[in-house]
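Consider this one:
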Amino acid sequence: MVTIEEAERPVRATPIRATGDSWWTLAVLFCVYFFCLLDRYIISMLVPDIKAELALSDIQMGLILGPAFSLFYAFFGVPIGYASDLFPRRWIIFLGVLLFSLATVFTGFAGGFITLFLARILVGIGEASVSPSANSLLADKFPRKQLATAISIYHIGVKIGTASAYVIGGAGVAIAAAVIAIFPFMDGTAPWRIVIMVCGVPAVFFALLVFTFREPVRPPRQKSDVGPANLVRFIRGAARLLGPMLTGFTLIAFSANCMAGWVPTYLVREFGWSRAEFGPILGVIGLITAATLIFKGIAMDWLFAKGFKDIHIRFYTWLLAVTTPIGIALFFIPSTWLFVFCYALIQIVAVPITAYVATVIQVITPVRLRGQMLACVSFCMIILGGFGPTVIGLLTDLVFKDESKVGYSLAIVIGIAFPSALLLLRTALKPLRTLVATIEANEGEGAVKP
C-alpha cells in the first residue's frame, strides 16, 4: 500500500509487469465494486415486504428493479466514461460511491412508488461512475497477458456482492425485526427499511481507499484523442466485432437481470420457501461463482498467451453451449432441489459476463477511449438488459394474469435469449481474432495462432 502523498505521483501508464501498487489498486476496486452490487441487489430480496407496505404491483416493482436503475446508469455512464478519460479516475470513483451510498440510505425512507423510483435513479447514477474508471485503471496497471485475471478478480465483486445481498436480505429482516423490538423508539419501522439503510453506509469508508494508490500517467491529452468523432471512428472500424458481441452479451444480461430480480420471488411463489431458507443458498451459489471467476481469468490469460486471440469470447461460448439446454428447461423442473442445482449451474457457468466484455474492450480500445468505450458498451447492454425484470412483470400481469405463472415468463425469456446469444457470439470470433492480430502486429507482439 502507498501513502496519499505517494499516490499523487505519476507512474508508468503501461507497465511491463504488475507491481504491488497494481495489486493494491485491484484490491481497493474490488471492495468498492462489492458494495456497488450489494446496494444494487439487496432490494431484490425485499420485494414481498416492499410490495406489501407500499401497495405496489408486479409491474411497478419491475420498473423499480429494472429501468429505474438501469436507464439512468446507462445514460449517465456515457458522460461519466468520457470524464474518466479526461480527469483523475480516483475522484470520479469516490464521488460516485458517495452518491450511491447516500441514495441507498434514502431508499430506506421511501414512502411510495415515486420516492422509491427516485432513490433507485440516484443509485444508478452513482454506480455508473465506478466501472468505466475502474476497468480503465486496471488496463493501465496490468499488462495485457495478465489483464483477464485482474478484471476477473475485480468482477468477483459482482458475485460476492450479489451473494451478500441474498444472505443479508434473507436473514437481515429477521435481525432488524429483533432490533426494532428492543428499542421502543424504532417501533413501527418496517424491518426492510433498516436492512437497506445499513447496507448503504459502509461503501463510503472503503471509497476513501482510492486515494491510497497511484493514478497512472496517460499519454498527453489531445482533444482529438477523446472526442466523440474519434470514438465513432473506432466503433465503425470495429463494427463487425461489436455488433454481434454486444447483441449476444446483451441478451445474456437481459436474462441475468430477469433471474436476479425474480428468482427469489419465484422460489416463494412456486416452492413456498422463505427468505431465511433460500437466502443463504443463493449466497453460497454466488460465492462459488465468484471463486470460479479467478480460474476462468487465469485460463483465458494462459490461452491468450498461447495464441488464442479470440479466447475472451470463445471461452464463454463453450460455457454457454453447455448451459443453454439447462436454461431452457429450468422453470419446468418440479423438484425444488433439482431446480436449485440447475439454477446454480447457470449462475456459476453462464451468467457472469462482465469480465469477458470488459476484457475485450480494454484489449482492443486505445488508451484515451477506454472509459467512454466501456460506458458506451454498458449503455447498450444495460438499456436493453435492464428492462428484463419489467418484461417479466408485464408477461406475468398482462399475459398470464396470474402471479404464480412468473416461472413461465422467465422460461420464455431464457428460452429465446440463450440460443440466440450463442449464435451471435460465435459470429464475433473471427472479427476479434483479426482485430487483435492487427493491434499486436502494430505493436510487434507476435502472431495469431491459426
Summary: The chain is about 75% helix and 0% strand. The two ends are 42 Å apart (CA to CA).
